[in-house]
Amino acid sequence: MTLDEILDIPPYSLRKDDKEKLLLARLNELTELHRENCPEYARVYGAMGFTERAGSVEEIPFLHTAMFKEFDMMSVNPSEVVKTLTSSGTSGQKPSKIYLDRATAQAQQKALARIMSDFIGSKRIPMIILDCPSTLKDRKKFSARGAGILGFSVFGSKRIYAFDDDMKLDVDSLREFLGKISKNTLAGGGADLLLFGFTFMIWEYFCKAAEKSGLDLSNGILIHGGGWKKLANEAVSPEEFRRRLHDVCGISRVHDYYGMAEQTGCVYMQCEYGHFHASTFSDVIMRRPGDFSVCRFGERGIIQTVSVIPQSYPGHSLLTEDEGEILGEDDCPCGRAGKYFKVYGRLKGAEVRGCSDTYERS
To answer: What does the pLDDT read at residue 139?
Structure first.
């Protein structure tokens, strides 16, 4: 199947055996493509002793995400790169550099749209971006935070930033915006308003400012990601995060997502039961720290993610710096097929990073 054909499959429709066949064929294809076109990947591939096609998704060779900090890894001619995405790293630390050609960038957006439609519907709706406009300064080269805003903003029929560039909540503009939104934006139910932002920034800047604003966002659905490290340091649980949002502005529909700059597009959305889900276009594997063997379901390990999308750079199979646990497969109460899992956070000693962990006032 071509990548376009894969992306036309409903995002949570394939069960274990069918998904394994699809992913294995595509990932083997990408492994060969990158081995032939990316010298750095070819050296790693050879050093790891791979000589033939993988017989299972778990056998697909993987790179550690740190490789993208140290090397310019691309599988296309530099003249074909239309966008360079940098990961969010804390001050003084080297960011990852992800090189996208037009086809890969378009595939990322299509995958994200397919995944999101399962949660917010296929129609675009009014959107509040819980960030400031200056985040998108250079459209050709920007951070994962900017890429997240740009990627999710296509789901808004009309959009407004909640903050000015000094991160002050613009209550008057938000009230005017909300006053123009029909309570029946979507026929047949669903959210009338989409809110998007990064977890720590929502907690630190929005929740505190919105408490005295009187804003009613009860008809909204919030999509957020990143930044749990700082909230954990402040002893803020996901349950407390959701409760606080409901108290200050009435939001009750809240979905976290797990994702990374190195595999933009294939986000792992959190369902209404609090589980992160791998879509048809991706998968997740847990590996033991000692020997990188595959963990059993219910066993904590290092998160490895695979994606059918990356063509311009070798990002189709990556070992992260995060710890997680696969809870099950094809049997989540929400009805979505595929693996579902829990994320515990950064491994001890791993670099602290995240789209909203890195915000600093100028």
So the answer is: 56
Q: How many residues does the chain have?
A: 362
Distance between CA 328 and CA 338 in Å, rounded?
8
Question: Distance from CA of residue 16 to its chain's centroid?
Answer: 22
Per-residue CA distances from 303 to 173, 319, 339, 344 (Å): 41, 6, 13, 10
Return phi, psi of residue 13, to 5°. Answer: -105, -25
Whole-number Å distance between alpha carbons of 359 and 355:
8
C-alpha 86/C-alpha 137 separation (Å) is 13
Number of domains composing the chain: 2
Give the CA angle between residues 155, 160, 164 to the nearest 5°.
135
Query: Percentage of the chain with pLDDT > 70?
Result: 87
Most confident stretch, 13-27, 128-142, 339-353: 13-27
Same domain, 299 and 218: no
Question: Do 224 and 274 belong together in one domain?
Answer: no
Task: Confirm if 253 and 194 have CB atoms less than 8 A apart.
Answer: no
